[in-house]
Design a protein that fits this description.
L-arginine/glycine Amidinotransferase, Chain A; 27% strand; alpha/beta; three-stranded mixed sheet; globular
Length: 258
């Protein structure tokens, strides 16, 4: 039967040195970040996800943001080539773990760049943000990998945030939710819902109508609750200082069979 696994990677000692592009740098409490990460992982497990810890990347400040290292479509893993050269060492251990789990593995090749945080999947539609970290060649290679599997790939310009999923994610019914001021082409999404807080644009689908959401988005949580969803808030304040969100801290694998 299908196995729900979530790849995670422990924050490293250099976390506070992580890249910041659209925010002013503020001090990061590394010890608090580790506590928040542990609670985040415990929340995944409490909702039926088996967490699989990738080997640490202590020399990579941004290594905890494991979502950027790979994009999954069905049982195929596309290993990214991060747009920031300092992050490219993060992918090797993720690739090895996915091979161990039985995934078919492809890779983005130079000169393509692709960050997993730029990829938003709703059913068979794959939206890919093209901006600071993902380029046109990276999107071309993603098309080549996933379109033969039935994906419909849609490129989305991104200029106001780090990644597409820094501004928008999707609900279980494929409605895209987002903080409209941060989206260049909001009308591109046929089913969409504006949310009142920037961090409210980020949800992880836990299953059973439950949505993992940042504790910093209480008004969005109330809106989603009114619409019949069950928000599950987690405090990730230290990661938000580094442009992180609830999606960045794991890679959800829904279609592995054990």
């Amino acid at each position: 039967m299908p196995s729900r696994k979530a790849l995670i990677r422990r924050p490293g000692p250099r976390l506070a040195e992580g890249l910041v592009t659209h925010l002013e740098r503020t001090p990061v409490d590394t010890a608090l970040a580790v506590e928040q990460w542990e609670r985040y992982c415990a929340t995944l497990r409490a909702h039926g996800w088996e967490t699989v810890e990738v080997d640490p990347a202590d020399d990579c400040p941004d290594g905890v943001f494991v979502e950027d290292t790979v994009v999954m479509f069905r049982n195929v893993a596309l290993i990214s080539r991060p747009g920031a050269p300092s992050r490219r060492a993060e992918t090797a251990a993720v690739e090895q773990e996915l091979i161990r789990l039985g995934c078919s593995v492809n890779r983005i090749r130079e000169p393509g760049t692709l960050d997993g945080g730029d990829v938003l999947k709703t059913g068979d539609t794959v939206y890919v943000g093209q901006g600071g970290r993902t380029n046109a060649e990276g999107i071309r290679q993603l098309r080549a990998a996933f379109e033969p599997l039935g994906a419909r790939v849609v490129a989305v310009p991104v200029t106001k945030v780090l990644h597409l999923k820094s501004a928008a994610t999707a609900l279980p019914d494929s409605t895209v939710i987002g903080f409209e001021p941060l989206l260049d082409t909001w009308s591109l999404f046929p089913r969409r819902l504006s949310v009142p807080e920037e961090s409210g644009g980020h949800v992880v689908l836990l299953g059973g109508g439950k949505l993992l959401i940042a504790a910093s988005a209480p008004r969005t949580a109330a809106l989603l609750s009114d619409l019949g969803h069950e928000p599950v808030p987690v405090d990730i304040s230290e990661f938000e200082k580094l442009e992180g969100c609830v999606t960045c801290l794991s890679v959800r694998l829904r279609e592995l069979y054990v």
